[in-house]
Amino acid sequence: MKERIAELRREIEEFGIDGEASLEQFRISFLSKKGLISALFDGFRNVPPDAKRETGQLLNDLKQLATDKYNEHRERLAMTETVQSSTDLSMPAIPFGEGTRHPISIVRNEIIDIFSRIGFTVSEGPEIEDDNHVFTLLNFASDHPARDMQDTFFIEKKSGTESDPHDVLLRTHTSSVQVRVMENQKPPIRTISPGRVFRNEAVSARAHCIFHQVEGLYVAENVSFADLKQTLLYFATELFGKEVRIRLRPSFFPFTEPSAEMDISCNICGGKGCNVCKGTGWLELLGCGMVDPNVLEACGIDSEKYTGYAFGMGIERATMLKYGVNDLRLYFENDIRFLNQFRTEIL
User: Fold this and answer.
1) What is the pTM of this model?
2) Distance in angstroms (rounded) separating the CA atoms of residues 111 and 322
3) In the prediction, which pLDDT does 312 show?
4) What residue ranges in the chain does DSSP mark as E strands?
């Protein structure tokens, strides 16, 4: 009896059901009054008394197995039939709206296009960097605040020995890409470095721990600050319109000397003063300056022969100024209502 039960169990498990006919054949073979399982129950009376408990449990389990399989496939076939009968193949498909490019991508591509027209190439580098390329070769002092954990996401702290010299971190600016370009390419160099950067800052409407930058570098003979100013004026008018004005204010960066901050006239009030520009008529856009000779020398470039300028801006800031966005957290929320506003920007 036990061997026959085991044999029927295998037959039930292996029985293929692919339609109403095979389902009915399964029911007749195993679950009908004249089926194989009923025959086993009829023979149960001949089982020795000491084996009835165990054999009865096996028979009940076998019947339950067959019943469950039958019910499962019956429900599946009924559901399939319902779906097929309710499907009108002549109905038009559900329309899907066209997607939109993210505003950050729109402005990033526009910035790349503007600088490409005047001979700048695009360079990229790793987001996980060493502090030599992010700080040391860019003339940052060993005790510069930017090296602290308060500003930088460090991944691995090294011992500082000759065999284990440099900490590993998430780059805080794309200037590290410029360093790698200067290490591996002889002047003239004219390149921009767009990319994602990371800083350990509190997230707010005006700041985020992840953002995007575009930094530019031009190194050649006889490059002057006048060349830098003219390049930035061209860029500003191409991105924000011919009516925009720029101004350069003295500033300080470890890797440029002299250094400056560039403002553009407020595109909301036209320079007259409003709450966006805090009544000044100007909005800060980027930092720039002449490449410090120490940086050129550290990268293997003769600072007596070559000079250069560099600039860098946050793409989020440029996008906020271009489209009047007042909270950069919107860029990261993927709210379809926000993104749909840029549908007209699809080209």
Assistant:
1) 0.68
2) 12
3) 96
4) 121-122, 128-130, 154-156, 168-170, 189-198, 210-220, 246-253, 256-265, 282-291, 307-314
